[in-house]
Design goal:
It contains five helices and eight strands. The protein is an alpha+beta fold. It has one domain: Gcn5-related N-acetyltransferase (GNAT) (Aminopeptidase, 3-Layer(aba) Sandwich), CATH 3.40.630.30. An eight-stranded mixed beta sheet has the order 1-2-3-4-5-6-8-7. It is globular.
Length: about 180
């Protein structure tokens, strides 16, 4: 899907990721273990062509928003995705801060805040979800700081290296809808 307008924050803004944004830098993020170690993209090798195919797929989708995370001073610093389920009024979000020098500088937290508000305010979802590897304490802190709560912990859900790893499922409930725990 295409955004109608740029989503602006203090440190960054979110805008449509287009085929023209597929660059050597972006492809290097997808293949860099320091960046993708907690992401499912680590299992696939992306070429310029396959990355552009994915971008086209997202743009033509009625339920996926694929966006670039842009810093005014650094250009594109990462990507984020919203998987919208219009039938249930839910969304799943994910993000990647590709610029290692910007990790732990508030960019991930602001991106999660902007994505969550967009999902709730503009898309009208009642619940926003995300999955985080349990050992990814930085991402867990980012989501918890932004009002998410851990709904469950899926024991040994994925393989991290050769070892089983838990996945924490997180949820944010839109203020206009009651969460099951607030009833």
């Amino acid at each position: 899907m295409i955004l109608k307008e740029v989503i602006r924050g203090e440190l960054l803004h979110l805008d449509v990721f287009s085929e023209q944004d597929v660059s050597a830098k972006y492809l290097s993020w997808l293949g860099d273990h320091k960046i993708n170690k907690y992401l499912e993209v680590r299992f696939k090798t992306y070429s310029e062509s396959s990355a552009k195919n994915y971008v086209r797929y997202c743009i033509n989708s009625s339920d996926i928003y694929f966006m670039k995370i842009v810093s005014e001073g650094s250009g594109i610093v990462g990507t984020c995705t919203i998987y919208l389920n219009q039938n249930h009024k839910t969304a799943e979000i994910g993000l990647m801060i590709g610029e290692l020098s910007l990790h732990n500088k508030g960019f991930g937290s602001e991106a999660v805040r902007l994505l969550t508000r967009f999902c709730c305010d503009e898309l009208g979802v009642r619940k926003v979800s995300a999955g985080v590897y349990a050992s990814n304490q930085g991402s867990l802190k980012v989501f918890l700081k932004n009002g998410y709560r851990i709904e469950c912990r899926l024991t040994a859900q994925v393989l991290f290296g050769d070892a089983p790893e838990d996945v924490c499922r997180l949820a944010y409930f839109n203020d206009f809808h009651q969460s099951p725990q607030s009833k």
